[in-house]
Design goal:
Elements (H helix, E strand, L loop, with lengths): L14 E7 L3 H15 L4 E7 L1 H17 L3 H5 L5 E3 L3 H4 L24 H23 L3 E8 L9 E10 L5 H12 L6 E6 L3 E4 L21 E8 L9 E9 L16 E5 L1 H8 L3 E2 L2 E2 L3 E8 L3
Parallel strand pairs: 1-2
Antiparallel strand pairs: 1-3, 4-5, 4-13, 5-10, 6-7, 6-13, 7-9, 8-9, 8-10, 11-12
Helix pairs in contact: 1-5
Length: 304
C-alpha cells in the first residue's frame, strides 16, 4: 500500500514507522528484515511505501527537520532509501533504520546484495537503543532471563540456549511487577526448571519462598501473541486472588486466558530472544512433562 506524505501517522514510543521508496533496492532488502522486526512484539511496526515523487518530498521535509534541530551534517548526508520517521525526543535523530540505506554504517555500504543477517543485526542494535530510551525516559523496566536445556534426558546440568529480554507493564500492574522484581532480585528463579510445556505455554516450577498470593490489577494487556507472561493460579483457584509465584510464558495467542474463569493477568512480555523461547518449546515431552530438563538458569534486572 502506498501512502501520501501527509498521511504518515505520528510515531510514538510503541509505534515504529519504516519509510522507503517503493522502487529502491535497499528498501526491498529492509522489507526482508521486516519479519524479524515484527517478531519484536514490544512495538507496533508499520511499513510506508512511497512513490519516488512522494519520497523526494518527504526526504526534503525530513532534511529540513534535521537542520531545524541542529543536525545539519546529518541532514546533508541523508541519501538513504529507507528512514525511520522517529520521534527525536525518544530515539534521537535517524532512529531505528536511518543508517540502513545506501549511506551505510561504520564504513559499510548497504545495497540489494547485503545479507539479511546484517539488516537483522543492525535492527537488533537499534531496538536495544529503543529499549534503553524507554527505560531512561519513560521508566520502563526490563529483565533478562537466561534459559537452558540439558544435553540429554540423563543429564541434569543445563546448557545455555540464550537470553530472553522481558519488558514489565509496571504502569498497568505496579504491585504485581514489584513482587516479580522482588522475587528476581532474591534469585528465587535461578536454576528453576520448566515444569510444564504445552502447545500454548511454558510454565516454571513452584518456587517455595512464600505462600502469599497477589490479586490481579489490570487486564488491559491481552494474551494475543507469543511471549506474554503472567502468574499461574493455585490449584483449585478460579478467581483472580490466587496468583502464585509460578509464572508462565505464552507460545502464541491464548484467547481463553482473556475471558471467563480462566482469565489471567498479563503483566510482562518477552520482547527479544523469541528464538530461544521456541527452542525450549521444542523440548521432547510426555504430555506436558519435559523428558529433558530445561529451565531458567538466571534472571536479573537489565541495566542499560
Amino acid at each position: 500500500m502506498t501512502f501520501a506524505t501527509a498521511q504518515i501517522p505520528k510515531p510514538s514510543p510503541n509505534h515504529l514507522i519504516l519509510i522507503g521508496r517503493i522502487d529502491a533496492a535497499s528498501f526491498q532488502q529492509v522489507k526482508s528484515c521486516y519479519r524479524f522486526l515484527t517478531e519484536q512484539k514490544q512495538c507496533r511496526i508499520e511499513l510506508v511505501e512511497m512513490l519516488p515523487l512522494d519520497w523526494q518530498v518527504f526526504k526534503h521535509q525530513f532534511q529540513e527537520k534535521l537542520i531545524s534541530m541542529g543536525f545539519e551534517k546529518k541532514a546533508k548526508g541523508l541519501v538513504s532509501d529507507v528512514v525511520y520517521n522517529a520521534d527525536f525526543s525518544i530515539c534521537g535523530p535517524g532512529g531505528i533504520l536511518f543508517e540502513m540505506g545506501t549511506t551505510g554504517t561504520g564504513g559499510k555500504q548497504w545495497s540489494d546484495k547485503t545479507p539479511r543477517a546484517m539488516y537483522e543485526s543492525a535492527a537488533r542494535t537499534r531496538l536495544k537503543k529503543h529499549y534503553k530510551a524507554l527505560a531512561k525516559d519513560h521508566g520502563v523496566k526490563f529483565l533478562q532471563i537466561g534459559v537452558g536445556r540439558a544435553s540429554s534426558s540423563s543429564e541434569d546440568e543445563l546448557q545455555p540456549l540464550g537470553d530472553l529480554v522481558v519488558m514489565l507493564f509496571d504502569r498497568e500492574c505496579p504491585k504485581t511487577t514489584a513482587r516479580f522484581l522482588s522475587l528476581v532480585e532474591q534469585n528465587v528463579y535461578n536454576d528453576c526448571a520448566f515444569k510444564y510445556i504445552t502447545d500454548s505455554y511454558i510454565q516454571c516450577d513452584y518456587v517455595p519462598v512464600s505462600s502469599e498470593t497477589v490479586p490481579d490489577e489490570c487486564f488491559d494487556q491481552k494474551h494475543s501473541q507469543i511471549g506474554c507472561i503472567g502468574f499461574a493460579r493455585r490449584l483449585g483457584e478460579v478467581h483472580s486472588n490466587g496468583n502464585t509465584n509460578q509464572f508462565y510464558i505464552s507460545l502464541g495467542a491464548i484467547p481463553e486466558f482473556d475471558s471467563g474463569v480462566s482469565r489471567k493477568q498479563c503483566f510482562a512480555r518477552v520482547v527479544d530472544g523469541m528464538r530461544f523461547l521456541k527452542m525450549v518449546a521444542k523440548t521432547e515431552r510426555n504430555g506436558s512433562a519435559p523428558l529433558v530438563k530445561c529451565g531458567i538458569m538466571n534472571a536479573k534486572v537489565v541495566e542499560f
